[in-house]
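Lines hold sequence, tokenised fold; shown next:
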Amino acid sequence: MVPVNVQTLIVSTAPAPSIIVLQPVEDVTQEGKFRIVPIWVGMNEATQMGIALEYARFSRPMTHDLFLDALTNLDARIDHVVINDVKGSTFFARLTLRQHDRLIDLDARPSDALALAVRQKAPLYIEESVLERASFPYVLKRKGGDRIDERELTEFRTFLEKIAPDDFEA
């Protein structure tokens, strides 16, 4: 399993999908190259991820908050999430809960699993085989650690906007 972080969230308006972009934690090479894994999600899923990334709280509990409150009351918490498979453009995840010394493994949509894990600051992983099949190389950092300029960031965003779920078809 390879540790990953949510690098960015690109929120689009319907009918275009939004994208959760994962990046392996220690994947940057000396040349500044790294891999990204884009996961297409709907508007509702992107909204939930945005709320999780911003650690936003509302006066009334959202569905993910309700789930986490239920876990807390059952003396459980999110232990970790693994993106464990990809078929075409559909990703699969396992959400692992910890209740005392017991681990409980659940099948979950990646968007839900990631949103829950981010809320609890739980580790995120991707299986090496999924990373190999679903990742795209990208160069963002310059050799020598120079700062990234706005043009490079624009190119990166354009790259992400142009890739499509069909690019994953094996």
In short: The first strand starts at residue 2 and ends at 10. The chain has a mean pLDDT of 86.
